[in-house]
Amino acid sequence: MRAEIFLCLHRSLFLSWENIIKENKLEKSFYQIDQKQLATDLQTDLKEGLSKTAAAERLSQNGENALTAKKKKSLLSKFVDQFKDLMIGILLAAAFVAALTGEQTDALFILAIVVINAIFGVFQESKSENAIDALKKMATPKATVIRDGLAEQVPATNLVTGDLVSLEAGDVVPADLRLVDVANLRVEEAALTGESVPVEKTDKILTDGKLALGDQRNLAFMNAHVVYGRAMGIVVATGMQTEVGQIAGALQGQDETKTPLQENLKSLSKVLTYLILAIALLTFVIGYFTQNMPVIDLVLTAISLAVAAIPEGLPAIVTITLALGTARMAKKAALVRKLPAVETLGSTDIIGSDKTGTLTQNKMTVEKVVLKGEIVDLSVQNPFESADLSTAANRLADVMALNNDSQFTAEGLVGDPTETALIDFNEKYRPEQLALLRKQERLQEIPFDSERKLMTTIYGADEAYQVTVKGAPDAILSRVKNVWDKDQIRPLTDEDLASYQKMNGDLADQALRVLAFAEKSVEHLPAEAKSAEMEADLTLIGFVAMIDPERPEVAESVAQAKAAGIRPMMITGDHPQTAAAIAGRLGILEEDDDRDKTVMTGAALDELSDESFEKRVEDVKVYARVAPAHKVRIVQAWQQKGKVVAMTGDGVNDAPALKAADIGVAMGITGTEVSKEAADMVLADDNFSTIVTAIKEGRKVFSNIQKALQYLLASNLAEVIAIFTMTLLGWEVLAPVMILWINLVTDTLPAIALGLEPAQPNSMQQKPRGKTANFLSGGVGPAIIWQGALQAAIVLTVYGLALAFPDHSGTALVHGDALTMAFMTLGLMQMVNAINVKSVHQSGLNASAFKNHFFNAALLFSLLAMMAVVVIKPLNPIFHVTNLDPYQWSIVIAASLAIIVVVELVKWVQRTFFNRG
Ligand code: ATP
């Protein structure tokens, strides 16, 4: 006894709660501790949870409940990383050669450019990282915690040891929990234990000795998925203290995924690098043997070529454009969880969308009820005031209140809108009874799931246990034996059944969501409620019909999607007639659509083989009464046809479909944490229209990346052709510093600015680009080649003319002037060409051409920076240029602008005679 007292004192006086945990971990494991003892040890309460102040204190003392991800790279290591590039190696070699040949200024300048490039690289990397971090923050999972006796949703990172957490199907377990109140909880914890079948959990103490994790059944571990049931649990470990946190290396290998585009680019860059080394070698050989050029000049030329041809800025531009795209999407409520999704989004062909909450508002209101075989319109009649109906109405309302999981919290009534509507109904007509009913203790339950489409609860005491069932009318009617009629129970006849089925259909046709209610009493409380026994031989009480208005903006988005060649489909657990009625109002179904072909039920789908379904899949626009597993089949059938499928989902069972889809879309508000984890994108507002907006953004991002690519590759090609030809002709070749300067100025601002271009006006009138399209599709590849060649041709013409007609105004044109003119023309023309690449086939000078102010500023700044090296005399020697006179400038400017005239002309010919764009 003394020892115990001492231990107690010792505990409360000398040990922080954190040490207590450590101590417990050493002596006893959490599964071996009695609930009350645990609550005392962790200074919490099994019903009320922690107080808000205690939770805040613990949070500030012990930090966030987060698995610390890979250590962030420091700025310095990011900077050093920039030098690990082959390109930089070549440039450093160039600086070395320049220094050897006595060209100190060249050497220093090359080094300066390398450093500026690296700084710019660090800047871009950090900017992309910040955008992605911001996204991650927005996607932090939420947890329901009871503090000061009230339930509230908090970011899971705010949980602390001792917090009382509520779990339900679809949740990702937010920390390690000792379960204290379990109702049919089943948890999938394969990632931790390797056990792929969900494990049944308990709240009982386990007194055995050392148990393997998989056998610690009264604990739920962080990151496991709740697939069924409900429970309360006390947080016993957070963050890195949790079991997953402790697994060494668990967090490694979580490298950010590269998008297909980034992968393609990586291989393209590799190929280009080798190709260019080969061309450089060839130039060297030709120059040496045919032109007798000095070796040093040839080395410098080869280096110029390499500098010219390797698109060093590309990967960074792509990453930053994608990252900025995700930031823009986030502002419009589409949170992209995986970067590749930004790219895939733009090519979406099919959107399979849930109905409830995504196409509709998920604001349910009970409009009609069916009592004693009659439809009662609540806007016309109050059944509680009718002598004939009041008993049945009260019985129905009782079951509505009892068979209900919604909860009164600090923020008011929360829960599934289908269920809160039933409470609202009670509150409106009989608030006192509602208060009494809510006090009753639920003894057993079989939670709702979208396979059974039923939910059951058991209340009562001593041989009068009341089983109440609610669910989809078809599911209930097939389990009903009796019916409540004339305030008494009698067997259900075939006529009754037919009449109820007809009423169900009629209500569904009015776009109403119908729920049926039934009950029975049993003498013995089952040890565990099983569907087969409890949901059979029921007595039907009545129906409730609710309106769930469509979201007002969805019809417009459906029309937009259709115009963009995207097919919107409704996939719902609701009745086919309700589904069809709403799909008709939204334009998913058209007036003259044959409903037999365009509406398919899950049951009908089950009867089709994969082959026969593939034949029918193109007809169907509405799938009703489907279970989540059907969604996977629908996704796969379309993918078989080579289509890119976006699919929404909110429940725990939707995760496989979300993973199978090209774009899995989860719901931010009503979605379960499991579905969010499986998704590529989360809709912060649950709204279908947001998907269409995101697709529009996705198309824009892709086409802007193409613009930047076309711009940079055409410029590089022009440089290579020009240098190669100059060598062949024995002309003085552009120096590495010139090429470096052009690339520094063009690769940075104008290229990024192209990534920020607004969407093209017709972007949502074009068909999806298709799965096989890549960044060279849509005429971009050929445009790079002819525009690159054209630029080179113009530069060489200017150079050739300047060499051929040296004396234009009495002053002799020296060689240096011709080279300077070629250099300036090449640089300025590339920038002017940025206007051309705004559209592959449309005019670059249309009404919206200069709406992107960042682009305008970037272009102006770059043009001035380019000209500065010639205009500002002290800079001339660094760049090996001479100062041009007005006559020479006018030739340079005219030649640079010529690129717009010629390209516009070619585009016009392409549009007019070849039907392009
Ligand atoms: P969607 O799939 O478009 O979100 P949904 O909400 O109708 O539509 P489910 O949640 O799978 O899809 O529900 C299927 C059916 O189950 C509903 O049409 C309704 O009849 C019934 N149902 C829905 N919620 C409950 C509930 N809480 N209790 C009992 N039955 C329910």
Task: Describe the overall structure.
It comes from Fructobacillus parabroussonetiae. It is a multi-pass membrane protein. It is a single chain. With 917 residues, the chain is α+β, with helices and mostly antiparallel strands. It is elongated and about 115 Å long. The longest helix has 42 residues, at 688-729. The model is unreliable at 1-18, 248-256 and 810-814 (pLDDT under 50). Strands 10, 11, 14, 15, 16, 17, 18, 19 and 20 form a 9-stranded mixed beta sheet that branches. The chain has an 8-stranded mixed beta sheet with strand order 8-26-25-24-9-21-23-22, with helices on both faces. It is built from 35 helices and 26 strands. It folds into 4 domains: 17-62 and 160-237, Calcium-transporting ATPase, cytoplasmic transduction domain A (Distorted Sandwich), CATH 2.70.150.10; 261-333 and 694-914, Calcium-transporting ATPase, transmembrane domain (Up-down Bundle), CATH 1.20.1110.10; 336-361 and 552-689, Rossmann fold (3-Layer(aba) Sandwich); 365-546, Calcium-transporting ATPase, cytoplasmic domain N. The structure holds adenosine-5'-triphosphate.
How helix-rich are the residues, as a percent range? 40-55%
By CATH, the superfamily of the largest domain comes out as Calcium-transporting ATPase, transmembrane domain
What's the Cα radius of gyration? 35 Å
DSSP E strands, number? 26
Largest sheet: 9 strands, mixed
Q: Taking all residues together, what is the mean pLDDT?
A: 86
Name given to the CATH architecture of the largest domain: Up-down Bundle
